Amino acid sequence: MDRPNDSVVSEFVLLGFSTSWEIALFLVLIFSLLYLGIILGNLFILFLVILDSHLHSPMYFLLANLSLIDVGLSSTTVPKMITDLPNKYKIISFKSCMTQTCFIHIMGGVEMVLLIAMAFDRYTAICKPLHYSNIMNSKICISFVITGWVAGVIHAMSQFAFIINLPFCGPNKVDSFYCDFPRIIKLACTDAAKFEFIVAANSGFMTMGTFFLLILSYIFILVTVWKRSSGDLSKAFVTLSAHITVVVLFFTPCIFLYVWPFPTSTVDKYLFIVDFLITPTLNPSIYTLRNKDIKVDIKRLNKEGHYVRFC
User: Are the beta carbons of 279 and 257 closer than 8 angstroms?
Assistant: First the structure.
């Protein structure tokens, strides 16, 4: 990640929140608990899907991959944010900043493709139940995951390729908890307008395109069910409610961050907390509380645990 000779900035200062020592410690406690919830909740779903043969199906395969990505996405930013909060100066090296930005966009791209795959899975299960096993086979599921990683890498590298060559010779303060392409471009010692447009077009188009595709797919599923069941949508709503909730939670901050990626306000700091802390924390609860199969398997595991202890 070598930079041009006229780039003299070797590190960035993350401004984050300007708070008192007491508030910083309180935030450290809250964010640490949320991050612990992210790790335990998502890894619980991951291992439950791996170990329980009853959950060896396309939907749960995709859900396990989504949980893994949630852990990875949060881990790129949250641990550093927690350790930085008590410090007066929050420093990140240029290489670490670029690496963090790339991983955020790679895993963000993977998550978008996984959400599309899960929507396709629900469409197939609800609208084409007789052909479900033929359409959603193991090859198509693995293909979705591979496509997600390829799309994520291309998405991140297409922006990284030109940003790494920008000259950084002056300001080095990033008004956020983490590094991201829109914030870094603003610090370049050059006319960044065209680069800002490229980032907005790339990330913004990908975010909005994926969001509208998902919403249209859910509408199509509901319309199909409505036509077949004479207006009774209750079962379809129950089936799709968890997926729709996750989509709204994930994409709402992304739309504000990347469709309008160069705001002058600090609202993106709070959106960061939603996208990297709140949503990954809630995802396991959403899928557990609204998924009958997972609740049944949890109860079965509890019974087996009690039986083992009794024996």
Answer: no
